[in-house]
Structure formats: structure tokens, C-alpha cells
Fold this protein.
Amino acid sequence: MTTINREVTPQGDLPENPERLHNDLHEIWGNPRGLKALTIVNHTTLGLRFMVTGMVFFLIGGLLAMLVRTQLALPDQDFMSPDIYNQVITMHGTVMMFLFAIPMLEGLAIYMIPKMIGARDLVCPRLTSLGYWCYLFGGIILTFSLVLEMAPDSGWFMYTPLSSSEYSPNLGSDFWLLGITFVEISALSAGVELVVSILRTRTQGMALHKMPLFAWYILAMALMIVVGFPPLILGSILLELERAVGMPFFEVAGGGDPILWQHLFWLFGHPEVYIIFLPAAGIVSTLIPVFAGRPIVGYGWVVFAIITTGFISFGLWVHHMFTVGIPQLAQAFFSAASMLVAVPTAIQVFVWLATLWLGKPKMKLPMLWIMGFLIIFVCGGLTGVMLALVPFNWQVHDTHFVVAHMHYVLVGGMFFPLIAGLYYWLPLFSGRMPSETLGKWGFWLTFLGFNGTFLIMHWTGLLGMPRRVYSYETGMGWDIFNLLSSMSSFVMSAGIAMVLLDFALHFRFGKPAKHNPWNADTLEWANSMPPSAYNFVSLPKIETRHPLWDDPDLPRAMAAGEHSLAVATHGRREMWGTDPLTGKVREIIHLPGNSWWPLFAAMALAVVCISLLTRLYPLAGIAVVIAALFLLRWSWENGAHPKAAPDAHVAPGDPSLHSRTMDGPGLWAMSITMLANGSFFLSYLFGWFYLWTVSPEWRMPETSPLSLVGLVVAAVALTVGGGILEKLVRGLRQQRDAGLAIGMFSISALGFVQVGVTLWVLLSANLAVTETSHDAIIMVGLAYALLHGGLGAVLTLLQGLRVGYGYVGAHAPFEPAVVAQLWRYNVVTFWIIVGALAVLPRVIGS
Amino acid sequence: MRLSIQRLTQQRVNLPGVPLALLAGLLLTGCAGDKSILDPAGQAARDVVMIWWVMLGFGTVVFVTVVALWLYAFKRKEVTRTPVQERRIARRWIIGGGIILPVASITALLAFGVPAGQRLLPLPLGEPPEVIEVIGHQWWWEVRYPDAEGGEVVTSNQLIMPAGEPVDFHVTGADVIHAFWVPRLGGKIDMIPGRVNKIRLEADEPAVFGAQCAEFCGAQHTQMQLYVEAVERDEYDAWLAARQTDELTSLAENDQQHEPAREAFMTHCASCHRVAGLSTAGEGPDLSDLGSRTSLGAGIMAMEEGAVTHWLKHHQRLKPGNKMPPHDDIETATLESLGAWLETLTP
């Protein structure tokens, strides 16, 4: 069987000297040292940075957990004051969820995905870098609040009105809202680029149904991040506006509703659980076939389970709110849906079982952690089904029973597979093997400690111990169970310390790993160990799901440059852009190199975050402008720009560079970004209609305060601009670029007309945004329209300039098509805003 | 947190030890205030416990089977099979374990569990049940009896309900979200500002139950507790009758020797607390029948001779962050006279 695609890389190009090729590729892809290491955009380096940073936050979160268990070890302890205790529990949840679980798994995906799908990097490398810096800075800002003793203390779910300025007047809530939103930029950017990378940059021949299961899981996770995070971002923005400006979105007296926050929070919060679980299940589905020595049975079943989990998880959020007093019918629906999610999970459990059953499983160290996962997770899944039953939920909701359940699901469903995965991939990271002895000790201490802590906690909860109490009195029958939980938790931390020690020591003392030490089937093991910055000297054509099992010679052949794109003379970072379904090559994607702009932009955003925290609003405004300028400057280095790909020459027979086609990955990145944006917009519409129909003291004027004529004029200007842009893009598709610059400038002008008129409508409406939630939420909708209109106008203006510089035109036609997507989105959402905010109230009335 | 008072006293506050030691002894022996879900005292809670035990049994069987199968997969001898056989085995596992098992379990669970939930719903009854309104404050409970004969009765931090008949609790929050939960009677329901939620509970027989705020509500969420006392119907009616405004007013004014305490009350307390006949404020807990209550500070310390004074002196240490300002500026003698007078308010 040959894996060389002879159609696109003529054999004559085969390099004579793989060593020289390696050096040439290293020249292009290699990481700079010193201060310039801050400019690195490479996925291997950034994936590791994500994971190491995630581990540091894990230690912080774990330390907080130990403080909690110390406080609760005995009744009536005053080791911590109530105030500090509340900060500690809030930060434990927040750090573990937002600064450990998600970034850690993202880091693993960022590291692994390109290697598994035969690519050389993620498709938006600078975005990886921006994501990392936002994560790091946001995480530091958030945890710094602990040092200041000003940490958020309203619980990691930040329910209003407790988190509002009236009941939490200090900066804690602001740290949470601003810090988390900042960190979420990182989650979203990783989400977008992982989706696009998986869909568009798999090596040739890797059709969707030949993709490693891990990539399916990450695809689902990334899409869920893209759709699931925006509701929380909206919620955070609204709550921060309420706190800082006094816009009463969640305040009953002002016509708001605290339950709106709960809906927005759990609209994010429940998918979040599966965002964490799916990649971990992906690790399980990757490891089990390897250690069973046979392909997974029921690949299709697993894909089906992943997709259904993704969908169902968006229909479960209300099960966190069964005690809120929502209507019976809704409770029954969400109760059944919550139980139904057990079906795809059970399918996976039995697929794994059947794979072991039909294979020859070996109990190596990673498999030990998988077994631990199974035991804990099945237990957590069963209590999950119990909790979905409303009458039972009413009893145990907000007791330690739920604390136990949640840790069974999250630690069992995320942490154990994660450690299994890290042990499995350690040889790839470092080229060395971990210590079996230390690893086994680590596992057993963690496993026994975990169960000792949390199995008992179910019982404590059933005895009536509520959550989030800083102490309890003796004589309730809770003492001994709490003491056992606390003691076990220290056993567990000793186990985790051992695992981390093993990880740290193996980099120096581990014995060198042989190539592909577990005899795995997927492409990441065709890398050198540790991997080079460009991953593969040449990119193979994939025929099966198990490239390394079916062709054990493949790694050598790839390293010898016997496959495609083994060219470095052009000085570009290149890889394949392939068809999302079939994996047929469509173009060569050239990637940008290292850059300061992501770091600078993230620093400017950090200034925005800090100045909002300290209420220095003018500084925040300036920093926003600076951040926007950095981001725009970054976008300038694209297409035919001297720093991108001024020379479009490709080897004979190869397809053209993506920036010279109408088919680049940027189109996909923009679509996925607009998907996230659309989720944000839908959440906003949900908020508007929710307040209108449900809020207890909603007040609405007789007629809409917004000028309908003004809005229609603005909408028409926007629509005409969008129409011209579509026409220009159609022209580019046919290689015509006559009048492109002037066209872009006039579209931009129309965009500014829309912005101006909308601004006039907003100002002339005399909204009393601090008086009623009605006016406040209208204000947010119009601000959204203004921001998007402004962005569209500026980007088309830049396109006009880029035509002048020669970076865009018939020879490099791709960018206007990307901008056109934003315009299309703007036109559609603006008309919806006009309809929802100005027309409907006139038609239906208050 | 009742014992913490004792510990605090020993460690930091010099108070006569005898009454407090007595107090501690009382608290240790009484099982009043138990919050175990597993010890139900009403039908709704009993149904849930039954569901729990059944679910636990069934869940254990599933759990043990799945884990045993996994472990067995590692131990069993290798068998060579044709791909067709393999596919058949895999399909059996996946359809049997992945689809039939969860779907059947869920159906059984819903068929069994949904009727149990009906009991907690305030569905119409032949005879309308007693209504008790409970309003959550940071961090105390306001309790109202709108149906009381002779006019609404208002009290705080104590809840008396008739035993052996369904009672509808109408709950809401005055500031942030709290939750009303009497574990031994069943359910819990959020107390949300701007909304009234309803839950129906019934106590089998007269007894005292612990209750607790179950939604995190800030610094003193932990010490937002309550004793719910179920009494016979006639006792309940008598209890309500004794708390009619006229009765309480005469109680507050009856004794000349407490005149200085009443004046101190009007100066220091009346802007937040109600004592029927003297003040009408509702910022803090109603104190009109304080002496007759079983606990102080929202269920955190037992009512005893000298307990009110102790609370007045040390409340910020007993319940840090509570909304009553510290009384360092008030003379000890005044606090003591206030405490003594408040303890006489026993209808």
C-alpha cells in the first residue's frame, strides 16, 4: 500500500537529504529564544504552555479545596472567618472550572489535534497565542483578588441579587465578571480555531469517517464552546453594567429579574459540564483501543453518541433550577431530557466494554486511570440520573449530596481520563517514560482518597448537611463523616502530588522511550519525540483510520520526506487545506509566523480589564481603542502582505495558496465566529423576550421610544452596502476587480451612515437606562448594532486601503469574501433588532 | 451553631458558666432540629426516601454489573472469533447496555417518581389548606399567618404549624434569593425576590424539625436556621390567638418596672424591630413574643435566661456580619435591662 499522493507532489521533488530538509523546515518553523519567545505562535509550544499554566491553577484550586476540608473537618471550627470561607469556596469552583478544566483540555487539544490529523499547526496560529495570553492575564487578575482578600464571594454561579452592587458592594463580583469574560476570549478563540482546523486542515485522504475519534470529540467540544459560552458572556456584561452603571437587568424593582441571570448562567453552565467531559471521553476512546490492541468497535455509534450528547446538553440547563418554581410541564421536560443524556453516555461505556471484551487488554499505567475513571464516572452518572428526578432533586439540591455527585462526574469524568491521557502522551511530550512505581502509588492514593472524600459525602448530604456552609454544629450526626472526608481528601492530595512529581521527574530521570511505545495507531506517534516545531517533514495521504497499524513504516517515510509538501525553499509555513468531508486537497494553507501583535493586543485587553475594575473608565476607553488598533494591525499582515505570502509561487502540480483562492480557512473561521456571535445575539433576544414576558415588575411604555423611520433608514443603508459588497465578491470570483477600492470605500461610507443614524436614534430616544430594565436592554441591543456596524465599516475601509497597497485584488481575492460574511450577519441581525425592539412593541403593545 | 456559643463563651467571653453549661447539656440531649432526609416525618419526605432506597438498590446493581464486566474483560481468556461474530457481540453490548438498559431504567424511574412529586404541589384541595407565608431576609426568617382568626399574625425566626394536615407555604425573598427547606418534611423551594413560590408540606404528628436556608445567601448563609414546630390544631389556634396585636400590645406595656428598657428599645431598636404596640418597623426580626421562642439569632442559640442579653452583647461574634450594628456604644446595664424585658415577652 502506498501512501504517497503522486498526483499533487510529483516524485521528482523528493528531497535528496532529509537532514537538510529538517534544518530548512526548522529554520522556518523553529521557536526563537529569549524575549522573542513571547512571540511564538506554534501550537506545540502554546499547547504545553496552556497545560502547564492549567496545572498551576489546578494547584491553586486544590489548595483552596484543602482549606475548605480543613475548615469542615471538625464541627464549629473557626479556622477561617465566614467571609474568607465564602471567598475560598467561590474561588475553588471558579478556578477549577474556568482556569483549570477548560484551558487544560483546550491545551491538550491545541497540542494534539494538528499532530493527530497530520497538520503542521492550527489554522490560526496567532489566535492560539492571543488565547493563551488572555487566559494567562485573566487568570492572574482573577487569582490576584485572593491576595487582596477581595475575591468574589457570591459562589461560582454568581446568582443575583447576591452578586449585585447592593449585596456585594466590594470588588469581588467585578473581579469575577471581568476576569472570567477575559478568560473566555481564550476559550472562544480556541473553540473557533479548533473547529476550523479539524474541518479544513486534515491531511489528504482523511475523510470525516477516517478521523481519529479524539478529533470528533474535540470538534464537538469546540462547537459547544462556540455556542455555549456566549450566553455567559452576555450575562456577565449585563451584570457588570448593572453593577457599574446601575442598569437594572436583574433587579426586580427596576423591572428586571434575577432568574434571567440563572437562565443565562446555566445555558452556559450545563453544556460546560459536557465541554469538560467530551474531551476526556475522547481520551478514553483513544486509549482503550490502543491498550486492547484492536480498533474500537462501533466507531459510528461513538460518533452518534458524541453528536447527541452535544445536542441534548443544550436542553438540560433547567435541571439546575428545579427549585426555582418553574412550571410543572417544563420541569417534566427537563427532567426527562436530563435522564436521556444517559443514553449516549451508556452507549460509550458499552462500546468501551465491548472493545475490551473483543480485544486483548493490557493493564498499563494509563489503563489504571481509565479503570478509575470508569468506576467513579459510572457512579456519578447514576447519581446524576437520580438527581434528574424532580422530587428527589428538591430534597437533595444544594446539599452535600450534590457536591459529591458533581465531583464524581467532574473528577471522575475529567481528571482521571486527563491523567490517563497525560501518562499516555508523556513519552511524546518528552521522549521519556514515567515511573511505573510512583505512578501506581499516585493512582491508588488518589483513587482511594477521592472515594473516601466524596462517597461519604453523599451520606452527609442525605443527613441534611447543606452546601456552602462554613461550619456546622455538633450533634447533627455529621461530625464523623466530615472528618473522614477531610482525612481522605489529604490522602487524595498526596496521590496527586505523587503524580505531579512523577511528571516533573520523568523529564530528567525517565528512561528514554522507544518510538511509538504503546503501539498506537494514530498519526501523532509519527512525530519525533519530543516533536519538532513543524510536526512532520512530509504530510502523508491517509487511507484508513489506523495509519500506523496499517503501515508501520509510515513514520520513517514521513520523516524521510517521502510524502507531500516536503518543500522549504519558499520560506513559508505550509500545510494542506482539505475538503471538510472527503479530505481531498483543495489548497495550500500558508500560516503566519511568530508575532508580537497577539501579546500586545492581550496586554491592551488586560489594561481594559484592570481599568474597568478600578473604574477608570476613560483609561478603559483608550485601551479599547488601542486593543482594536493592535488587532487591526495584526489583520493587516495577511494575504499578499510582505510578511504573509508576497510570492504565490507553488511547486508544479500543487494547488494554489489559500489566499489566492476564494476558499481559504478564514471564511470558515469567520463563519464559526459568527456562530458564536449568533449565539450571543440569540441570548440577547432571549433576555429581551424573557424580561418582557416573565419579569415580575416589567414596565413598558405605550409605544416604542425608538424612531422607526430612523432605524429603517439605517437598515436600508446597511443592506445596500451589503448588496454592493456581495456584487464585488461575485466579481472577484470571476477574477474581476475593477472599481474594487472605490466600491469598498463607498460600502464603508454606507456603514458609517448606518452607525450615525443608529446613534441618532439611540440618543433621541432619551432612554432612562438606570430607571427601567426596558430602556436598559434596548440600549444594549442598539449598542450591539452600533459596534457591529462600526466594525463592518472599518473593515471594509481597510479592505479599500489594502486594494490600494496591492494586498487584495483579483490576484488575492479572498479577504472581501470574509468581510462579506460579517456584513451579511450585520444586515440580518440589524433587521431582527429593528423588528424585535421597534416593530413588535408597536404591534403588540405593552 | 448552638455549641459555638458555648465554645466562644469559654474562650473569649467571661460569663457565668453555670447557665451556659446547662444550656449546652440541653442542646446535646435534644434531638429536636434533626435535619436528616432519611428520617422523614411527613408523607412527601417519606416518598422521597423510599424512592432513594429503591434507586440506590437498582443503581448498585447496575454499577456492580458494569464494573464487574469491565474487570472480567481483562481476566478472561482469549477467544478467536470471526469478524461477523465480533460485530454481533459488539452490537448486543451496545444496544443492550447502551440503549435498552438506560431507556428501561429511565421509564421505570419516571413512572415511579413523578407521582411522588405531586404531593408537594399546591393543587386545589376540597378544603383550602392553612397558608403560612415565609419571607427570607439576610439572615433571618419573617413568618406570617394571613389566615389567622382575628387578623394576620406576624412573627420571626419561629414557625409553628398545625400537625396532621397539609399546609401551604408561600415563600419569597426580601433581599437576595434564599431557600426554604425542612428536610424531614420534604422538598425545598427557592425564596426569590419579586415572586411567590408555593410548596405543600404536612407533618404526621407534633414534633420539632430543623429547617435551613438552602440557597447560598451571603456571609451568614450558614447561620440562617429555623425550628419548625408542628402542634395539634387547637394548640395552633390558641398560639395564634395569643399573638393578635391587642394581646401582644398589652404584653409589651403591662409591667412598670421595665419602663427604662422600653425607652432604651425606642431609642436603639425601634427603627428596625417591631414590638407590637411600640413600633412597626420590619427591617429586622419582629420581637413581639421573643421570650416565648425556643431559639435566638435565627436558630443559632437556645433561648435561656440571660441568652438575649448575651446575644445583644456578642451578636457580631456569634454571627459575624449580621446586619445589626454592634452595641459597644450602649451601656451594659442598658443591654441587660433590654434583655430582661425582651425575655418577659411571652404570651
